[in-house]
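in:
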């Protein structure tokens, strides 16, 4: 079934599609740091994540639309969660609302030797901030970022974005 134009679902899917199709971001989520493996995660000597036979398994484990943390302590990995935040009416405009999108980054300490969470954050912002994406009126703005409590051996950072949408 097709996603209806102008819906919150279309906006979230637009962000999701950009993230799951970016090779650089996928490499940052998948490959260990150079200090661990001897090879930079962005090296062309490593196989393209998008061309791997288990591409969808990687996506399902690393970029999620529902928060699942019960397996993090068992698996050393980097993971993104995309979710909706608050929705508010635009003052004195009966047609528009502002909608928040949160992208949460979890990085295991094994990945943090190259400041992986910051590297991932920078890449996400390059891809989506100030871009006109489907389901949005105007562009996606960066609102805030906050470190949060994370499972043992993990770092968590929440990024908050906001866009304008139609109330109806």
């Amino acid at each position: 079934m097709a996603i209806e134009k102008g819906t919150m679902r279309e906006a979230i899917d637009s962000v999701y599609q950009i993230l799951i199709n970016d090779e650089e971001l996928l490499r940052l989520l998948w490959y260990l740091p150079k200090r661990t493996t001897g090879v930079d995660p962005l090296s062309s000597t490593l196989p393209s994540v998008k061309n791997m036979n288990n591409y969808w398994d990687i996506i399902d484990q690393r970029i999620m639309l529902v928060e699942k943390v019960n397996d993090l302590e068992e698996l050393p990995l980097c993971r993104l969660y995309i979710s909706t935040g608050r929705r508010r009416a635009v003052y004195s405009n009966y047609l528009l609302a502002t909608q928040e999108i949160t992208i949460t980054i979890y990085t295991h300490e094994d990945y943090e030797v190259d400041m992986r969470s910051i590297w991932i954050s920078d890449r996400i912002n390059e891809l989506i901030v100030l871009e006109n994406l489907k389901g949005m009126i105007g562009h996606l703005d960066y609102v805030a970022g906050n470190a949060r409590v994370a499972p043992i051996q993990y770092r968590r950072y929440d990024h908050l974005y906001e866009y304008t949408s139609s109330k109806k």
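note: The chain is about 25% helix and 30% strand.
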